[in-house]
Amino acid sequence: QLTGPPCGRHGSQTFYKAFKFILDGKENNLAIGEFFFMKISKEIPVCIGEIQLLWEDSNSNYQLSSLRLYFLPENTPEGRDEFHGEDEILALHHKMILKLPDLIPMIQYNIEWTVGYPVPYDTTSNGDTTGENKPILSMIRDLTTGENESNIKKLEQSQVVIRSYPQYCRFRTALKRLEGVQDKWLKHTLVCALGGFSTKSRNCRVVYCLDTFYSSDLDELEIRCDHLAPSLKGRPR
């Protein structure tokens, strides 16, 4: 179910920023810009999805999502090459349009993800979520409200953040410069000030994306609804 007030309209399409759903008996939320693990089919390896658009089409009465999918190089048709970095992933060239009822069963939360550089765990009670760091931190849901068993399990779940290569380099550089800082609060503050970021998740890793790839298997999935993609081109000049 799409949640929150509409953030825009275009023809028969009404756009939203988030949706909520029930998975394994628990209510969850995903918003635009968030990353999550997906299992599209038994034959296709686990990948990372990124919500880029959410909308409802009044003509078809469908609730739809536009996704960018990311795969490890070894899980692409060309495979891993010597020039791929150890923390690098590849994006599927074309975005994928899926109905929300088709997307939800693919979402995976109990994935053990070990690829990527570990992100510092922010142990402060009110980490920096203001200024230019807010968009980055908002990609990782705040899981620290309360100390019940459910929240603790969420803190331990694998999470991943995908950055551009320049952002990834700034993050690694900031951590390198602060290797000798023992004060966790000071280190968290300085990392954010130097262009990096931290997270309230205890098991989050950062990877970067430099390139795209094509896959005929993914292009031919029957559940794709690319014909329902919104046309958001500007007025011709």
TrEMBL record:
One of its GO terms (molecular function) is transcription cis-regulatory region binding. One of its GO terms (cellular component) is nucleus. One of its GO terms (biological process) is regulation of transcription by RNA polymerase II. It comes from the Eukaryota. InterPro entries: ARID/SWI1_ChromRemod (IPR051232), BAH_sf (IPR043151). This is AT-rich interactive domain-containing protein 5B. It comes from Lottia gigantea. The lineage of its organism: Eukaryota, Metazoa, Spiralia, Lophotrochozoa, Mollusca.
